[in-house]
Specification:
Rossmann fold; 5-stranded parallel beta sheet; 14 helices; single chain; elongated; about 325 residues; binds zinc ion; alpha/beta; Zinc Finger, Delta Prime, domain 3
Length: about 325
């Protein structure tokens, strides 16, 4: 889903848009493109832009941009264009399944409604399960003449090499946090650069996700997490109860906040400021990074949080044992 208009300017995607236009103009467009941009950096938006660029009846001849206002552009944006097919993980499932790909192949075998191209957006493509990827491979090997497949992924290495090798890569330009922060400020000037930096800190380098995020709620979550971490180091936190809550709600965001906080504490220590035992902080950071990798897996999440918190709790125990009695 994207709420950005077709005319939005995402500077890091401009090279991909130019490459697409050039390929289209010289008739070198393959039948499958690997759009190597995560949805949070605009991969999904770029795929929709490409679809509009293909279907638009009033493309701006100089800028080579879809007009955004003709019937076809409006249909693309409203997800009502009959020759645009979308494949996403179905609700509650984290995977794109084989029957979805089979359905797609059947649709592609039919002629298009408007007699032109059909465009397919598969996003996020790394969610294709093994059978689905194999089924898609057949479509990629024997493409129907007019179809253009767009595989959107920020993690191309998670796709089988056989699928990747049959696609033309569409790459973004260079990115960094400064670029994202200035773009976010242009979209929503009411929030400061520091606010956006903090949001990107929690969400990772995902400006579109940041734009849709509730920045106030995110700030609150971060402060609440930091308060709990201070408490655990003083030995006053109910570790099991906290881990249980964090494991069940906003797990990935909590883990991101914990990582950021630990990195800040280690930075303090590096600058010679008073800090807890670095060994404990480093161990906790290792546990937090492991916990992050489990965000998408059925691993016992409260347990992963507990490991981090118990390690930090040893700060209080060590301090307690050294405190003079009486
Ligand atoms: Zn148009």
């Amino acid at each position: 889903m994207t709420t950005l208009p077709l005319a939005a300017e995402l500077p890091w995607l401009r090279p991909a848009q130019d490459a697409f236009n050039a390929a289209l103009a010289s008739d070198r467009l393959g039948h499958a493109l690997l759009v190597q941009v995560s949805p949070g950096q605009g991969g999904q938006w770029l795929a929709v832009w490409i679809a509009a660029r293909v279907f638009c009846r009033q493309v701006d001849p100089h800028r080579q941009m879809p007009c955004g206002s003709c019937l076809d552009c409006r249909r693309v944006m409203a997800n009502e264009q009959p020759d645009l097919l979308r494949v996403h993980p179905i609700e509650d499932s984290k995977e794109i399944r084989v029957d979805q790909v089979r359905e797609l192949s059947a649709e592609l075998a039919l002629t298009s409604h408007a007699g032109g191209r059909k465009v397919v957006i598969v996003s996020p493509a790394e969610r294709l399960n093994r059978n689905a990827a194999n089924a898609l491979l057949k479509t990629l090997e024997e493409p129907s003449g007019s179809a253009l497949l767009l595989l959107v992924t920020g993690e191309p290495s998670r796709l089988p090499a056989t699928v990747r090798s049959r696609c033309t890569r569409l790459l973004p330009g260079p990115t960094n946090d400064d670029l994202f922060v200035s773009w976010l400020q242009a979209q929503r000037p009411a929030s400061s650069a520091a606010d956006w930096r903090a949001v990107l800190g929690v969400l990772g380098p995902q400006p579109l996700a940041a734009l849709e995020a509730d920045t106030a709620a995110l700030g609150g979550l971060r402060r609440d997490t930091e308060r709990a971490l201070e408490e655990v180091m003083r030995g006053t936190l109910d570790v099991v109860d906290t881990a249980d809550r964090w494991g069940k709600e906003d797990y990935a965001l909590r883990v991101a906040c914990v990582e950021l906080w630990l990195i800040d504490r280690l930075r303090d220590w590096g600058r010679g400021r008073r800090s807890a035992a670095p060994k404990i902080l480093f161990d906790a950071l290792d546990h937090a990074r492991e916990a992050r990798q489990w965000a998408e897996s059925p691993v016992n999440k409260p347990l992963a949080i507990e490991r981090v918190l118990w390690r930090l709790a040893t700060v209080a125990q060590t301090a307690g044992s050294q405190r003079p009695v009486g």
